[in-house]
């Protein structure tokens, strides 16, 4: 590709990719999390489907700031559902959407994303803090530095760095989405090619992530010991599913784990958010690769370095 040609995805393409990923997430049977086959935690699949459409339109809108994408998406969600269905998804997908929509010569999504993350500023943090307060996620707690209850004094990436040791979503902001691009995305591609099913590939990625990293939401609500035990059980299921020629045959084991977790009100919500972001990253990455140098996109996005 001639490096002088800048490309970027349209807001409509980004919107469709994010909405479709959220729908796949609801179809996929992820133990402990809400799915079409298994409601839980006071929420139904329809809550997530309704909020997905509202959120995707706003997070993909051609705006100049990642923080604005975050705030607009949370506000849109609040107009259609009374509960927090997607804050983690929004925090992960906003910089991905911004990176994919920006007019740049670079095609590699992760390189684009790194530029976006480095360019985050205090204004992005201010809008993101407002969004988090509006979403009111459970078990958030307080922090001695850069607490979301107060106005931020640092750029969003620096604020995320403060939380990165205790929150896996914050960690993505300071690692250029390491878990997604280095662990989850290769597994998603391989398992989808193997089974011919995006839904089952999403389940497998969910188990890989849950086995590999204690879920931040579980830690906040139930403690590290419970989170570590959930990860150990997920590791067993990951091996079981990974050996399966037909993953549907392992559904009874997944259902048993799902019942166990929901009986104790344990929701691996952070892991589910990372799974959605992985689906989004794959489709954004593939869509960028398909663009020709002459492809057109929406208005130029603000990019800092």
Identify the notable features of this structure and list them briefly.
14 helices; globular; 305 residues; 64% helix; mainly alpha; disordered C terminus; Triphosphoribosyl-dephospho-CoA protein
Give an account of the 3D structure.
The chain has 305 residues and is mostly helical. It is 64% helix and 0% strand. It is built from 14 helices and no strands. The relative contact order is 0.17. The model is unreliable at 294-305 (pLDDT under 50).
CATH arch. level architecture = Orthogonal Bundle
Number of helices: 14
Low-confidence residue ranges:
294-305
Rg result: 18 Å
Mean pLDDT level? 91
Cα(first) to Cα(last) distance is 23 Å
Shape verdict: globular
**CATH homologous superfamily heading:** Triphosphoribosyl-dephospho-CoA protein
The string of secondary-structure elements, in order, is HHHHHHHHHHHHHH
Topology:
Layout: H1 11-27, H2 45-59, H3 66-80, H4 87-101, H5 109-118, H6 122-135, H7 156-163, H8 168-175, H9 178-195, H10 198-212, H11 216-222, H12 224-242, H13 251-263, H14 269-290
Provide a short characterization of the protein structure.
The chain has 305 residues and is mostly helical.
